[in-house]
Amino acid sequence: MKNHLVRTHRSAEPFPREEHLAWRIAEVAADPVEVAAETAEMIVNRIIDNAAVAAASITRRPVANARAQALTHPYQPGATVFGVEGRFSPEWAAWANGVAVRELDFHDTFLAAEYSHPGDNIPSILAVAQHAGRSGRDLIRALATGYEIQVDLVRAICLHEHKIDHVAHLGPSAAAGIGTLLGLDTETIYQAIGQALHTTTATRQSRKGEISSWKAYAPAFAGKMAVEAVDRAMRGEGAPSPIWEGEDGVIAWLLGGPKAEYSVPLPGPGEPKRGILDTYTKEHSAEYQSQAPIDLAFRLRERVGDLDQIASIVLHTSHHTHYVIGTGSGDPQKFDPAASRETLDHSIMYIFAVALQDGTWHHERSYAPERAQRPDTVALWNKISTAEDAEWTRRYHSTDPNEKAFGARAEITLKSGEVITDELAVADAHPLGARPFAREQYIAKFRTLAEGVIEPAEQDRFLDAAQRTPELAPAELSGLTFTVSDEVPARSPQSPKGLF
């Protein structure tokens, strides 16, 4: 990996295009390097993972509405949409599938200087692959690029510090991945990356306060914009540049300011793209920084015994966890029993209370209104707070994968004055955890979330296609989806008709 210094440049300052971050990313995307076997294996795992969480969310209102929008844009050759037959315009397929994948906050994650869900790259890149008649091998190469670029940007450039939403790294990574998929030249990919970044940079209010369904829509929008950006760039249309480093660019006005510097690592020429291997998926349907605390709560249940005897719980954790999903956020909604699922998903206090009470976690039952409004849950919930711990923050930012951690130390004070403490650095499903996820676990997750949604024979067909992704011919790439019976979408809440 080579580190590239990125900073603002005055308009009058010499700054060759070949030194722009967008150009360097485009060079990585255009590099025809082969994909390592372990990278391809993990990409297949994440294709399965995305389909699993899409199956679990297929009847939810935001997903149904996004799907309804896509279905009004049939197109040939087009791309597939989860749950239905037919082919649709690729940008709209990317939109619908992106919402389905993101809705439950249940797919893969990478946390460093910024947050990310790199699996958000898959819907847009897959849609274009299906539409453009590319092979499974082409798809694997493209997804390796999408993951690599997003991971590298996340390692180096913090967005949330400046209240910019993390999907600002997704637009460029998806555009780069599509560039790899189509074998585009560096210039075209460069222009697409600039457009994608320019159109997908927004504030973090989508993840603050009363969190709405736009939390799921935002990554899908970034993927849709990436598809459209590539289309325009292929037609010869350009982008604002230098998009990151310009005098009125992203760094100068949206991030650290004119004097800020970032060191962005990128693979060198001929260097394999291995970024996906540093990412991890979720065993529990909750924000990633709550994965280890959920497992910790399960472990503490027996030691605590009677939960009514708890006087207070303090979760000592990283800066990120404290300020994003903890009491450091200052969001009263994180203690509101009537809050949306999206808000409860970003309340470590709620999550720890329910995990401690139930000893299990479910993507629907754990967030149900009747579950959140139980008096004993509300009482326990309000006894929980978070505190930033410098050591947890240091480990969160560590570049050593054996030390990097997203956990917490729980300090439970009982009414008797007894204090029970325990800690967990990484979730059980993490590569360094007690039960690391491998192909078997990804398939089990798919089977669990597909139950009652996808017929068993269709589950088998999809899993067979997914596991053969590297060998799929272009005509077979449409198999990387699933259909459901007409009865399943009928369970979705009814919404008013929109424009389409």
Automatic annotation (TrEMBL):
Gene3D superfamilies: 2-methylcitrate dehydratase PrpD. Residues 284-467 form the MmgE/PrpD C-terminal domain. It comes from the Bacteria. Residues 19-262 form the MmgE/PrpD N-terminal domain. Pfam families: MmgE_PrpD_C (PF19305), MmgE_PrpD_N (PF03972). Belongs to the PrpD family. This is 2-methylcitrate dehydratase. It comes from Nocardia vulneris.
